[in-house]
Design goal:
Shape: globular
Strand content: 15-25%
Strand order of the largest sheet: 3-5-8-9-10-11
């Protein structure tokens, strides 16, 4: 008796610019464990260049530090670094950072360990205003109800913090002290200019002021309530 071996189907590799369904994108991405970042935006595959230190790695670490301290101080929130996110059938980005309400928010963690749905806050580190972070992704995130979206443009030395209002993103403006305050996550305060000037100490001091507010305390209480 001759037993014939079933031939395994070799998947084509992911290529920048491919047009794929989300299921096919995931199959090819999972078959390429050496690839650390690939995104599906409006059905098109984007595979960013290698990450450089000053232009991405260091700013990314500063954002994660800022959000990480907030998350630790705010039980009921969930911070994810570079997590693949199934936003809709044509879009599976891998945001530099996202902050979500854990159990009663817009998104959840699927059985196979992906973020499903739109997190409340997404942060992207962009090279410049020409980046797809400020064009294709902006439209995708707005359409899918990502409530706040931060884009740090490294070359332009600029930071935009967008808030979704009536299906449109509007920029949150700093207050008289130069601080931008989240409307979704009370106490999440950002001293934008010190961040751009690489003064992380000042950034974290301002964040601590936000964490000390009654609004932040009330938010923690709200998150602790069942249902």
């Amino acid at each position: 008796m001759v037993i014939q071996k079933e031939e395994s189907v070799k998947l084509p590799p992911l290529e920048n610019g491919d047009r794929l369904t989300r299921d096919e994108f995931e199959r090819r991405y999972q078959a390429m464990p050496h690839v650390k970042k690939a995104e599906l935006i409006e059905g098109k595959v984007y595979m960013p260049s290698p990450v450089r230190a000053a232009n991405h790695g260091r700013p990314h670490a500063q954002i994660i530090t800022w959000l990480g301290i907030y998350c630790v101080a705010t039980p009921g929130t969930d911070l994810i670094d570079n997590g693949t996110t199934r936003i809709d059938l044509d879009n599976e980005p891998q945001p530099d950072a996202l902050l979500r309400v854990d159990t009663a928010g817009q998104s959840y963690i699927s059985e196979d360990d992906y973020v499903e749905g739109a997190p409340e806050l997404i942060v992207e580190i962009a090279a410049s205003s020409a980046s797809y972070d400020l064009h294709e992704k902006l439209n995708v995130y707005g359409r899918n109800q990502v409530q706040e979206y931060i884009v740090w443009q490294i070359f332009d030395k600029k930071l935009n913090w967008f808030k979704l209002r009536r299906q449109e993103y509007l920029c949150l403006e700093p207050d008289a002290d130069g601080v931008i305050k989240s409307e979704v996550f009370p106490g999440l305060w950002l001293a934008a200019n010190p961040l751009l000037e690489k003064n992380l100490g000042k950034v974290l001091a301002v964040l601590q002021s936000g964490l000390n507010t009654p609004e932040h305390t009330d938010f923690i209480h709200q998150l602790s309530q069942p249902g």
